[in-house]
């Protein structure tokens, strides 16, 4: 139901040490955000794309579709950055409207391009992590970072419940559709609300049953899962270190000039 | 077909595909990598006291009754699922509700702050709504500011004995609007306009997102009313279990 969750289980990089993938994507992400340079964004975007599609064997068409998810936010907010309303025209373009100008400067245009580059590269870092790491592995990394126990437990439970609830929701929606539950706008809003209520009621009922089931299996406040341990390879660590050092070098070099 | 015609056809298909993919209007998560580093950190730090308060309250709740952990987790999963489903919209673009207003009314703002950050983390990883670096800013607008206002309005309406439907609607609607305003201000502070500074920039961000966010807030309000009303007529015992009805009556 959630495409990313399905894809990460068949990724070619699934069995690479999770902490390694986590560190790689987070540090690259930080370099993208801190440096804001198009060069770093380009490198990160290319490397992440290559790793995800070639090494991870994630289909390219799907990857492109996923990259387009935050597209509308990107377009709208970048538009707000590069378009100004002012009494004085700026240097790049100026369209007079009454006594005002819809205007922008070259500097802000460049800035907008830089922003789009950085954002897309950052999204590719995020996708590298989420398309190649299963959620349980990711939670394992968080546990190693000493995330509080209650939070860990909540996250694990929420992750399990998401799929149960999604299935229930889609079953309810299918039966609503088959009974003309969305024949017009009014009815479909009503149906959606009723689906939400039904879903919440079922969620509550199920949570009671689930607690009983867990308790009867000796649940004492901690869910212990056996973790598959894939130790990090020296070669991979070295490659990541070199890559991040190159990014660091470029960042420092760009800041110097 | 000549070569030129073929090229034209391909170009038009590519153009159409581009538009077929784009219209996904989310509840305004700031995307990954869109905020400068210092703003990411600042918003994260601002969230800490609220999250700590939420954490302590959750811990107390669970210590008092161990059984409530599955209930709280279900609530979190519910917020995730309801915000990942397409809601009916007038324009035909697909939009999602935030669900945090509903959560704040049902479970209180403290629980929602922690559930909110977990849901936002999952949304970032599983759906690419929002991101890891912008988690702090998104948490503040969606899991703290919006729910707090929703809860305050709901309580206030309860005190002045406003009609229940109206109060639920107002709480969800204004909470959603507030989230959208806070997000716009967050963006404006990071990217002040060259003509007019942060104030002008805030107006621009508000204006750019208004066409998608205003109808969304109204629909979210209506949906929340329908959900709460249906819950009250079908699930009184469950609502008592989470302490919702006792407070209301």
From TrEMBL, chain A:
Domain of life where this protein originates: Bacteria
Transmembrane region(s): 22-51, 63-86, 106-129, 150-174
UniProt subcellular location: Cell membrane
InterPro entries noted in UniProt: ABC/ECF_trnsptr_transmembrane (IPR003339), Cobalt_transport_CbiQ (IPR052770), ECF_CbiQ (IPR012809)
Keywords recorded for this protein, A-Z: Cell membrane, Membrane, Transmembrane, Transmembrane helix
Cellular component terms per the entry's GO annotation: ATP-binding cassette (ABC) transporter complex
GO biological process: cobalt ion transport
One Pfam family linked to the record: CbiQ
Topology versus the membrane: Multi-pass membrane protein
Name of protein: Cobalt/nickel transport system permease protein
Organism: Muricomes intestini
Species lineage: Bacteria, Bacillati, Bacillota, Clostridia, Lachnospirales
TrEMBL record, chain B:
Gene3D superfamilies: 1.10.1760.20
Keywords for the protein's UniProt record, in alphabetical order: Cell membrane, Cobalamin biosynthesis, Cobalt, Cobalt transport, Ion transport, Membrane, Signal, Transmembrane, Transmembrane helix, Transport
A GO MF term: cobalt ion transmembrane transporter activity
Keyword Cytoplasm assigned: no
Protein's cellular compartments: Cell inner membrane; Cell membrane
GO BP annotation list: cobalamin biosynthetic process
One GO CC annotation: ATP-binding cassette (ABC) transporter complex
Annotated pathway: Cofactor biosynthesis; adenosylcobalamin biosynthesis
Membrane-spanning parts: 7-30, 36-56, 105-128, 135-154, 166-191, 203-230
Entry-linked InterPro entries: CbiM, CbiM/NikMN
Membrane topology: Multi-pass membrane protein
Family: Belongs to the CbiM family.
Subunit structure comment from the entry: Forms an energy-coupling factor (ECF) transporter complex composed of an ATP-binding protein (A component, CbiO), a transmembrane protein (T component, CbiQ) and 2 possible substrate-capture proteins (S components, CbiM and CbiN) of unknown stoichimetry.
Entries under NCBIfam families matching the protein: cbiM, PRK08319.1
The name this protein goes by in its record: Cobalt transport protein CbiM
């Amino acid at each position: 139901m959630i495409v990313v969750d399905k894809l990460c289980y068949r990724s070619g990089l699934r069995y690479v040490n999770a902490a390694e993938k986590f560190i790689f994507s987070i540090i690259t992400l930080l370099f993208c955000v801190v440096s804001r340079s198009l060069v770093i964004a380009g490198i990160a975007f290319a490397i992440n794309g290559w790793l995800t599609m070639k090494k991870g064997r994630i289909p390219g068409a799907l990857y492109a579709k996923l990259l387009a998810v935050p597209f509308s936010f990107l377009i709208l907010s970048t538009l707000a950055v590069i378009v100004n309303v002012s009494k004085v025209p700026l240097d790049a373009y100026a369209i007079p409207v009454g006594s005002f100008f819809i205007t922008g400067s070259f500097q802000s245009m460049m800035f907008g391009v830089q922003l789009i580059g950085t954002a897309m590269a950052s999204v590719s870092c995020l996708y590298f992590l989420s398309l190649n790491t299963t959620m349980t592995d990711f939670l394992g990394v968080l546990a190693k970072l000493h995330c509080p126990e209650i939070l860990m437990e909540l996250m694990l439970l929420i992750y399990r419940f998401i799929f149960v609830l999604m299935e229930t929701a889609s079953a309810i929606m299918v039966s609503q559709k088959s009974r003309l539950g969305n024949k017009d706008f009014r009815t479909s809003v009503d149906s959606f609300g009723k689906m939400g209520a039904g879903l919440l009621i079922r969620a509550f009922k199920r949570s009671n049953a689930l607690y009983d089931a867990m308790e009867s299996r000796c649940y004492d406040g901690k869910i212990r899962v056996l973790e598959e341990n894939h130790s990090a390879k020296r070669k991979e660590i070295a490659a990541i270190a070199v890559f991040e050092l190159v990014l660091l070098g470029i960042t420092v070099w760009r800041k110097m000039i | 077909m000549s070569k030129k015609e073929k090229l034209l056809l391909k170009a038009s298909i590519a153009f159409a595909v581009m538009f077929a993919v784009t219209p996904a209007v989310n509840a305004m998560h700031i995307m990954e990598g869109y905020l400068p580093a210092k703003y990411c950190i600042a918003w994260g730090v601002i969230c800490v006291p609220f999250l700590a308060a939420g954490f302590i309250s959750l811990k107390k709740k669970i210590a008092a009754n161990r059984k409530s952990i599955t209930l709280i987790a279900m609530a979190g999963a519910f917020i995730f699922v309801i915000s990942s489903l397409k809601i009916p919209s007038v324009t035909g673009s697909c939009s999602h509700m935030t669900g945090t207003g509903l959560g704040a009314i049902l479970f209180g703002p403290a629980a929602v702050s922690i559930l909110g950050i977990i849901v936002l983390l999952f949304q970032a990883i599983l759906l690419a709504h929002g991101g890891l670096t912008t988690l702090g800013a998104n948490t503040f607008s969606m899991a703290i500011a919006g729910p707090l206002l929703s809860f305050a309005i709901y309580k206030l309406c309860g005190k002045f004995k406003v009609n229940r439907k109206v109060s639920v609607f107002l709480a969800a609607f204004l909470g959603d609007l507030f989230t959208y305003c806070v997000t716009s201000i967050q963006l404006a502070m990071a990217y002040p306009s060259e003509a007019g500074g942060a104030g002008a920039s805030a107006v621009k961000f508000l204006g750019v997102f208004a066409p998608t966010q205003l109808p969304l807030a109204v629909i979210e309000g209506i949906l929340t009313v329908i959900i709460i009303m249906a819950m009250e007529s079908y699930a009184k015992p469950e609502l008592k279990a989470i302490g919702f009805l006792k407070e209301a009556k």
